Amino acid sequence: MGTHCTIGYEREDGTIVASYCHYDGYMSGVGAKLVCQYSDIEKIKKLVSFGNMSSLMNKIMPSVRSTHSFDTPEADVTVFYHRDRGELWAYNAHIEYDSFDEWFEASQEEYNYLYIDGIWQCKTDDRFITNIAD
Length: 134
Description:
Number of domains: 1
Helix content: 25-40%
């Protein structure tokens, strides 16, 4: 059974883009990986642009000659439902929110990570942790 989470970032206009992740959403799993491997906003945008994922790993893209797929993932490469399993984009696309308040209300997974102003934050159990690296 997975510990579900969402991973998102705030755009300059205050809107938020987020994707779902099925496994290891707890702070010492996805949370730690986000702090250590995903501190560059361009890398975060690329990650979220692929939509919902099964598992977050240190790399987004497989190597050029890889046979990376959902069933045979390349080591340390994130597994996405649309790209790697062929599931419909309509059900696996990232979600966009008009504001922080809308995101906060809609974020109902066990952990909901949000990158704002260079800091990873997390909503869990209606608590909001303003810097998960601390």
